[in-house]
Amino acid sequence: MKKSLFTLAAFVLVIFATTAQEVKFEEFDLDNGLHVILHQDNTAPVVITSVMYNVGGKDGDRKRTGFAHFFEHLLFEGTENIERGEFMKIIPANGGTFNANTSQDRTYYYEIFPSNKLELGLWLESERMLHPVIDQIGVDTQNEVVKEEKRQRYDSPYGGLFQAIGTNLFKVHPYKDPNIGYMEHLDAATLEEFNAYFDKYYGPNNAVLVVAGDIDVVQTKKLVGDYFNEIKSKPEVVRNFPKEEPITETIKAKAYDKNIQIPAIIATYRTPGFASRDASVLDMISTYLSGGKSSVLYKKLVDEQKLALQLQSGNIPQMDYNIFALFAIPQGDTSLDTILDEIDEEIVKVQNELISERDYQKLINQFENQFVNANASIAGIAESLATNYLLKGDVNLINKQIDIYRSITREEIQAVAKKYLSPNQRVEIEYLPKKDNE
């Protein structure tokens, strides 16, 4: 009975994913270079206004890291027309919600309002772009906010994993530095440096505006023009990041964390950026290895052999290089080398044998489920549209990405595993408890 129910559920999912409504959108550019994407969906009386800026942790002086993340906070301080602290009061007072986030590649702001507040959302984002107040009071306030965030996230148990990976996997590319930056860099920065950073990266021609939801397209176009046309474009941002040399022999490293008692092992590979087809194949390989409790590594190392307390793999998406990483915490007296040997055994199987047809269909079902979920909300659609335009160069990936995954064959999975996931192409990091003398 359970098998029949599972089969029926999988069948329904496939039908739903196959017939899921195409996400329709309209694009245009303002004279100042701001790219605008509109998506109309009148099924619910909500609207999202969002702006994604082409600036992230990798941008800027390497002696002033963390500026993009800092600005994620700073640009809520206020503007010439919004008093300090009022930005975050106006939105909930009008029935809305908001958030922002920063990656190594971009910064994203959004507000979700009842659809009759569309104009308010556009005004807020135009204010943020046109004339924010960047002063010493705001800088000092947000400096403390960022430090507290670092304490909560990065100074928690295993919170330094990403920094350990970045520092050891990248030697010259700015991905080597943590997205949040180094606190001493923020402490040393001057107000003039913060203003210069804003002037360089936060222009309309370095951003995309997405308006999605219960909108009238003609009216929305007019409102966008009314609020954003007066913003002047800025000089084009020119990037020329240094390229990493390929890894041709295993690099062994150690990292220490004073907040842990149990060590961990990380095997990490530098792989192609997320716009490449190989990155999509590696997504599938990662899911096959540890996507859920029924995945091969979880079943083997956690459930059956009980060698690991926790195990996870991920193909961390970035624009210039992805990070394919495997992470495990051993159980009992299991050594880190034993864990890594068992992981390698499964990777070698993927390299030398085709995965089973059953496992392949399971992967397709998982990615179809992800596709449906990603397009199930206005917020998800808006972020996908912005990301696909700004970072991947093809807005219509919101409709095509699932076909890319469906077109990946078992043979391709085997070939890509061979191409990128050999021990001589990785960094092995022993993530260890920090002792008093270390």
TrEMBL record:
Q: Peptidase M16 C-terminal domain location, by residue?
A: 189-366
In its UniProt entry, the species of origin is given as Ichthyenterobacterium magnum
Source organism superkingdom: Bacteria
The UniProt similarity line reads: Belongs to the peptidase M16 family.
Identification of the protein by name: Putative Zn-dependent peptidase
Q: What SUPFAM superfamilies does the record tag this protein with?
A: LuxS/MPP-like metallohydrolase (SSF63411)
Signal peptide interval? 1-20
- InterPro entries, A to Z: Metalloenz_LuxS/M16, Pept_M16_N, Peptidase_M16, Peptidase_M16_C
